[in-house]
# Entry
Amino acid sequence: MWLAIDIGNTNIHIGIFEEDTLQSFHSVKNASPRTTQVNFSQILTPAILSRIQAVIISSVNPEGERVVHEYIQKYLMIKPRNIGRDVPVPISILTEYPERVGVDRLVNAIAAFERIRDWAIVVDAGTAITIDAIDNKGAFLGGIIAPGVDMFSKALHHSTALLPEVSISKPRGILGKNTEEAIKSGIYWGAVGMVSKLICMLCDELRDNRPTVIATGGNAEMLAQEIPLITLVLPYLTLEGIKITYKTHLAFHTQH
# Structure
């Protein structure tokens, strides 16, 4: 048994794997160190801890990563291994600065290609919305980074004197009849329109290739129900990418 941990800006996703099979999935807020440790203790019971043999981490949040490392080393006495630092990423990265590409985007691309084996676009709708392209050889071509739905809401609230922070769900219509409805409409339909337009532009830039569009992340379902171009919603795509990366690393060391 081993752990795949995806440390994002807002949430930490924990996958408990038995060999290649995801046995359970848990998501906790990337909050204070104390809260994170309590949440981990509730998930990783003594019975589970006794069986864990490895911990593989994908992280875009250095502070959250530090807290998780401390917890794992204290209670598991295992040194966690980070993808990109301890575990190489088995993918060609065709960007100007490959070392700057977020590990989460790369493992998403690895998992998408493993499933599609052809051109693909991955929409990861989390704190930020990333839209990335993978070619038919599995290479990461680059992509787009934009604010996520919750970030739009927080920015409106914190950058204005009177606008409230609104929880975003599908509005009753496009025309808001009060401030909350107007904000909800602007953010919801604005995000849908932005992502739809960016996917279309990316498909045009890829020319004759017809990529499969996959969505993942907390707002994946929201976008997928409004954007017909999104044909697959895969909630555990990042964890699958961590698994593939780890297994590729193990296989390489077994052969050598």
